[in-house]
Amino acid sequence: MSTLARHHVGPRLSETAIHNGTVYLAGQIAEVDPGADITGQTREVLGHIDRLLAEAGSSKQSILQCQIFLADITEIGAMNKVWDAWVAPGHTPPRATVQAKLGNPDYRIEVVVVAAVEQAR
Q1: Is the pTM here over 0.70, yes or no?
Q2: Number of domains observed in the structure of the chain
Q3: Domain that holds residue 85
Q4: What is the pLDDT of residues 39-78, one digit of tens each?
């Protein structure tokens, strides 16, 4: 029998869903400082991902897939500098990065992650 757990459940979405040893994160955005530049927003978003993965018994070393949505694709270089400093060497996940119109004009980046759970919860 498979199990399904949702965490940080709200009226519109759950921040995470865990099913059969895989954790699925909702798109993460900069909520603390949505007025920050791409560097600041990327740092904040990656911090959200670290926290949510840890809560689920996972980490950035176990990311199976990452999708990055940028409001302005010309900011990919600055975003990649933050990403490269954050991502675990030797554990770089499959990744797609695209330009997209995000749900709020202040958002410069949104990141969706799927990861393997490392430990039983």
Answers
A1: yes
A2: 1
A3: 4-116
A4: 999 999 999 999 999 999 999 999 999 999 999 999 999 9
3-state DSSP call for residue 114? strand
- Is 39 inside a domain boundary? yes
Q: Is residue 37 part of a domain?
A: yes
Q: What tens digit of pLDDT does each residue of 1-24 get?
A: 579 999 999 999 999 999 999 999
Q: Among 26-35, 57-66, 96-105, name the one with the lowest average pLDDT.
A: 26-35
Q: Tell me if 60 is assigned to some domain.
A: yes
Q: Residue 48 corresponds to which amino acid?
A: H
Which CATH number covers residue 50?
3.30.1330.40
Q: Long-range contact list for 37-43, CB < 8 A, 24+ apart?
A: 37/78, 37/108, 38/70, 38/72, 38/75, 38/78, 38/79, 38/108, 38/109, 39/78, 39/79, 39/81, 39/82, 41/107, 41/108, 41/109, 42/78, 42/79, 42/82, 42/83, 42/109, 43/82
